[in-house]
Amino acid sequence: MARVSIVGKATMYLPMRTVERAIAVVADLADLDHPAAFTEVALTSLARLIGCDILTFTEVDLPSGRIRYSDYPDGTLAVSNYQAFSENVDQHPLLNYYRASGDGRAVRMSDVVGRADWHRLDIYQECYRPRPTEHVLGVHLPSSPTSSRAFAFNREHGDFTESDRDVLDLLRGPLAEALLRARTVHRLEQRLAAPSQERLAPLTGRERQVLELVAAGRTNVAIAHALQVSPRTVAKHLERTYRKLGVGNRAAAVAPIVHAPRSAPLEPVTRFGRAVRTAPGELSGPSQAS
């Protein structure tokens, strides 16, 4: 057994094989450059890690009730199922638990509501019973107060275990970081490629690479490591970039990138494309699982 400590939680003991598989999930998430790639890889990897009949990643804009979702296996859930979810989302026991407690760690449906009370809810009758889904395990990723995003593992038979909860708590931080990184890189790629970025036209390909990494918050040393050059070479690239752009510092150099307009809001219910390059536009804020 491996001993693992999580801040704010007692030391947990997980089988070494489980820890190794969790590490493999983190490795799968490294260097993703598109939100759809994150969804594709995370759903597939997590479903292998924790056995389930259905796994979903769902984002909800709480004031408007707008929803985006992706499911695994792909195409398991119909849009009509999520339409019913949207109409009854205020009843969702896990969502209400996360909102009330502010604790996004993994939790089972059976931890927050009794089975009889769960069955009496409209959201169970209209969304979960038809699947069928009896047992749910959710983990909530950090988001804004007005939005929610989470993975939900669904099973027809057999509740989830304490070990399942512990391993998801171990992965919660890396999952959130991977999604943020994929979205940041994708936005930067779009902005650097946009025709409106005429100001960047004089830069060479390598100078654009360096500038993109600067905009992502990398230091000269980190950029040098990523590009396999020396920090002095990175500094020279930046000096030439400043001259070409007519600026004197890093913040001014990346301004054409970080101030580009954001994408459009969602339709009321939108299904994520599982194809890596075909996801719809992002939520205006971060976003909970069904």
What does this protein structure show overall?
- The chain has 290 residues and is an alpha+beta fold.
- It is built from twelve helices and eight strands.
- It has helices at 16-29, 35-49, 79-87, 93-101, 109-112, 115-120, 122-128, 162-193, 205-215, 220-227, 231-245, 250-258, and strands at residues 2-6, 9-14, 54-61, 66-72, 107-108, 135-141, 147-155, 269-271.
- Strand 1 (2-6) and strand 2 (9-14) form a beta hairpin.
- Helix 1 (16-29) packs antiparallel against helix 2 (35-49), helix 1 (16-29) packs parallel to helix 8 and helix 2 (35-49) packs antiparallel against helix 8 (162-193).
- The longest helix is centred in the middle third of the chain and has 32 residues, at 162-193.
- The protein is elongated and about 70 Å long.
In short:
This protein is of the alpha+beta class and about 290 residues long.
Mean pLDDT: 81
| Spans where pLDDT lies below 50 across 5 or more residues | 259-267, 272-290
Strands of the widest sheet, in order across it, are 5-6-7-3-4-8
Count of separate DSSP helical elements = 12
Secondary-structure blueprint of this entry?
Blueprint lengths: L1 E5 L2 E6 L1 H14 L5 H15 L4 E8 L4 E7 L6 H9 L5 H9 L5 E2 H4 L2 H6 L1 H7 L6 E7 L5 E9 L6 H32 L11 H11 L4 H8 L3 H15 L4 H9 L10 E3 L19
Parallel strand pairs: 4-8
Antiparallel strand pairs: 1-2, 3-4, 3-7, 5-6, 6-7
Helix pairs in contact: 1-2, 1-8, 2-8, 9-11, 9-12, 10-11
